[in-house]
Description:
This protein has 6 helices and 7 strands, in the order ααβαββαββααββ. It has helices at residues 5-104, 112-136, 148-157, 185-201, 235-238, 258-268; strands at residues 144-146, 168-174, 181-183, 207-215, 221-228, 272-278, 282-290. The strands form 2 sheets. A 5-stranded mixed sheet has the order 2-4-5-7-6, with helices on one face. A two-stranded antiparallel sheet has the order 1-3.
Amino acid sequence: MSVNKTDYSSEILQEKMWIEIIQSMEYLYAELADNQARLEKKNEELKKTYEELKKAYEELQTLQVQLIHSEKLASIGRLAAGVAHEINNPLTGILTFAHLLLFNMPDDDRRKKDVEVIVKEAKRCRLITQNLLDFARQSEPKKTKVDINIVIGKTLSLVENQSYFQNIKIIKDFNLYLPLLLIDSNQIKQVFMNVILNAQEAMPQGGFLTIGTDFSEDGKFVQVEFIDTGCGISEKNLGKVFDPFFTTKQVGKGTGLGLAISYGIIKSHAGEIIVRSKENKGTTVIIRLPIKNKKER
C-alpha cells in the first residue's frame, strides 16, 4: 500500500499549525494572567492610596475642628474667668451673712430651713464659679514622671467602694510595661475622675466599665480607654460634648464643664481626647498622652 505524500505533508502542516495555535493560546493566557496580576496589584495600590488619602482627609478635618474648638474655648475661658471673679466677691458676702444668721437662729425658728436653702444654693454657685476658674485657668501643669497605671489605680480607689458603684463591674486591662509619663498627675487624675463618674451616671442600673492602657498605634502616645455599657450619647449631641455648659443631665446634676475642663487639661499636655458613642450601646473615651515631652526631644 502506498502513502500519498501530499496527504502526509498536509497532516504534518496541520499538526504544526495546531501546535502553533496552542502555543499562541498558551502565550496569550500567560499574558492575560500576567496582566491580571498587574491589574490586581495596581488595584491594591489604588485601594491603599485611597485609604491613606481618606485617613489624611479625616485627620485634617479633625485638626480643623480641634483648632476651631480650641479658639472657641480660649474666648469662652477668658469671659468665664472674668464672670467668676465678679460673682465670687458678692457670693462670699452672701455665704458669710447666711452662716451668721444660722448661727444666731434658735433650732425652732421656722425661717432656719429657708436660710439653709440660701447656704446650700450659694455653695452650689461657689462650686460653679470654681469650675469656671478651673476651666479658664492659664497655669502650666506641674509635671513629674509617673506611672499612668498607678494614677488610674489611685483615681479608682476614691470611687470604686462607693455605694453608687456597687452594681458596676470595673474591668482593668493594663499594659504593665508602659514608660513613665511626664504629666501633672493631679490634673490627669481630675480628667480620669470626670470620665469615670460620667460612665457611672450613664449606668444607673449597673453595667461594665472597662479601663485599658496600651501604646497608641503609631507608638508616640500612651493610650487610656474607658469603655462603658451605659445609655450612650445621641449623634446630635456627640459633637457638643466638649462645649462649655453643655450637659444632658438634669438641672442641678451638672454644670457641663467637666469634659470642657478635661479637654483643656489634655491639650495642655499635648495629648488627645476622643469620645465615641452610640445611643443605648455605650460610650468609649480615648485619652492619649505623649510618651516624649517636647523638652525631651
